[in-house]
Amino acid sequence: MLVREDTSGAAELMEQILYEVKRVVVGQDRFLERVMVAMLAQGHLLVEGVPGLAKTLTVKTLAEVVQGRFKRIQFTPDLVPADLVGTRIYNQKTGDFSTSLGPVFANLLLADEINRAPAKVQSALLEVMQERQVTIAGETHFVPSPFLVMATQNPIETEGTYPLPEAQVDRFLMKVQLDYPTDEEEFVIVERVTGPKVLVNAVATTEQLGELQAQCRSVYVDPALVQYAVKLVSATRAPERHGLKELAGLITYGASPRATIGLVEGARALALLRGRTYALPADMVDLVPDVLRHRVVLSYEGLSEGLTSEALIDRIMAAVKPPAKLLAPEQRAA
């Protein structure tokens, strides 16, 4: 009974956080939900969308609401790893070296247009994402907790960009694609931007966010649901074993075990966000496209047929059905 009360409190707190963010950010409900899922699941987001869709505003506002540190890095071709993680600076007066930490030492980090930076800089960021620490001159520095990286890609400009290798993209929990707002949403956006500035209230702390992350790990995931995640990911590697022989020549590389872990952790976070102590198939099904779309690499044959990873994922989801019946929460509690 205590667990359920705690979960309802967690859902209420997250509802307050979302309410404050939505006082500034108009629309983008699905994107906001994915940001919260990534934060609770301790993952990172790769966001693809044209400029002006409130990506920076969303993360900056969220940082204000949870009283966390926010940093934004504009990735450019001349960026070097030291600009990101920090470096050692020589003091002529004292004759000593001091460490100047880079902008990655924040709770919420926006890596804007990550594909504009060379591979060495991308690798430096992705190492921080994975290890949550930086080593400068043999000294290890840990990034603050919680730590969320939201990297953006611009889909309309390809000149002067460096595509992210699949092994690096795989480290992102989800890839979210943003679209333009509706006419009604755009009307409200113009009204808010041109009207008086909205001041958000800090309704949580980074400590409370850390407690929510710990609570997220205790959300129950039925073994049948884990098996469903395993089958989905397996179908991207060996589709013929799941009755999808026609897809075998269309996929070069399937998803890694990180995808299976991401589906389970994401389902936990979404369940907690929806006020439950246990995950349902609907929680996982909602996240499958976002968790898999950047991990399924199409073959030349698939690209020549005009297919997309989303189309293949839809076909896999149609063939691999979610479990019809899970262990009832009452039985699990007993």
UniProtKB/TrEMBL annotation:
Protein name per Swiss-Prot or TrEMBL: ATPase
What domain of life does the native source organism fall in?
Bacteria
Q: Which GO terms describe its biological process?
A: regulation of DNA-templated transcription
Entries under CDD domains matching the protein:
AAA
* Record key words, sorted: ATP-binding, Nucleotide-binding
Instruction: Tell me yes or no: is Cell division among this UniProt entry's keywords.
Output: no
The entry's family comment says: Belongs to the MoxR family.
UniProt xrefs under PROSITE patterns: SIGMA54_INTERACT_4 (PS50045)
Signal sequence coordinates: none
